[in-house]
C-alpha cells in the first residue's frame, strides 16, 4: 500500500495551473478568506503606508463601519478636509511607513504626554512635527501648537483602537531614519520635504526581520492593552520604494524591503489566530497582473488595481456574526443638539426682528 | 431723502438701527436673521444693491428702500453703510457637531477634538466666504464699516473665530468696529444692562452705546454736523 502524497488531497487553489494560469487574473478565487469571523457591524480602523488610504476609502464606499476618531468639522468642505489630511486614516497620523513608527504611535496613544518629547522642526516661522511633517499645509504656528495637536491625534489614535474590532495596517517600508541619540523614528528622511539633515544626529536604518517583528509585536501588545478584543489585519503595500538610502539599486532594495515585510506579516499571521494577512501585495505585483496595475511611472497603483484588491477583500471578509449591540453614536446626538441650538438661535433672531418690525 | 447711515445685516443690526435712532441719526436699514444671509437667500445685486432669492416680500422692501433713498442702487445713496454679518452662533454650532474646539485658548479637553489655528482660519473663511464677499462688493461702492457682534457668551473657540473674521475684514481694508475693544478693562462680555432679555443680542442701550463709539471714532458724523442733516 502506498500513501497518497500530500499534494493529492490539496484543493484546486493550491495549484498554479488551476488557481492562477487557467482562471486568469479576473477569475482567481479563494485568494483570501478572513481568518476570523466578525460581527456584521464590525468597525475597522485603518493606518499604514500610502496604500492604506485606499482601504479607508473602500470601506466607507462599501458602507462598512470605518472608525474616524479625528474627523474634520461637520461643515468643512471635502476640499478643506483633504488639504488638512482629515479622513485619510482613522486619526490624523499621516502615513505610517515603518513598524517602528507604528510602535511609537501606540506608545503615544498609551500616554499622550510622551508627545512632548517628539521632535518638532522649525520651518521658517512655522513648525512641523517630525512624525507627520506634512499633516498641515503650512505647518503649525508654534512648537506648543505642534505638540498640542500631536497629543490630540495620539488621543484620537487611542480612541480608534478602543472603538475598532479590526485594526488594518499596511506595512510600507523597511528603510527609515531615526534620531541617533533618542532613537525616535521620523516619518520621512529629515531634509527631504521638511527639517534639515544632520549626519551626526540622523541615522539611517534598514530594519531587519527581527527588528520589525519585535516592533510589530510591541505595537500589537500595546493595542491589546487598550482594547483586548481587537483583531489585526496586515497587508503589505505593493507600491515600490521612491528611493533607497542603501547602496543597492532601488529595484533590488524594493524587493528586499517588500520580502522582509511580507515575511514578518506571514510570521505574525501564522503565529497568532487574531492576526490575519490580506494579499494586496500579491494581487498587484505578482505575475498574473503582468504589471498592468502600475501607472506609467511603474510605481503608483491604478484605480483598477485598487478596485480588484478591494473586490477580493470584500469577497473574503467574514461578517457572519450577529451585529454587536452598540451605544448610540454620541456624534449623532451632538450633531442633533448643535442643529437644535442653531434653530433656537435662528428663532430668537427672527422673533427679535419680528418684534422690532411690529414696533415700527 | 438723504440719510446719515444705511444699516444692514443679521439680527445684531437691529440694535445698531435702534442706537442710530437714539442718537437722532437718519437711517435706512434692513435686518434679516443670520440664516437668511448664511443660506444665501439675500445676495448682492449690481443694479439694486441687494436681492432676495425667492422672497418677493424682501425684494419689495429693497425696492421701497431704493425709492425712498432716491437711487437705483441702495449703496449709491452716499451714506456710510454699517454691516453686521458675522453670524457667529451658526459658525460655532457647525464646529460643535463633533466637539471641535480651537487648540489655543484653553478650551481643549480630552473629550474635544482640537483644530489648529491655521485650520480654524481656513474653516471660518470658507464658511463666511459669501458674507465677506458681500462686504467687499458693498465696500467697492460705498464707505463701509463692519460692526462686530456684541460680545456675549464667547467661548475660547468662538472668540478665536471672531478674531479671524475681524482680521479678514481688516485685510480687505474695510473699517471695522469691534465692540469687544470698547469693553472696560478686564471685561470680556457685555454688562447685564446692555443685554437683550433673550441672552443672545444686545439691547437698545447697547445700540446707543456702540453707536456713540462709532460717532466718537469718526465712523459716523454727529447728527448736527452731518452733511445730510
UniProtKB/TrEMBL annotation, chain A:
A Pfam short name: GSCFA
Domain (GSCFA) ranges: 44-313
Domain of life: Bacteria
Record-linked InterPro entries: GSCFA
Protein name: GSCFA family protein
Automatic annotation (TrEMBL), chain B:
Top-level taxonomic group: Bacteria
Protein's organism: Primorskyibacter sedentarius
Name of the protein: GDSL-like lipase/acylhydrolase family protein
SUPFAM superfamilies in alphabetical order: SGNH hydrolase
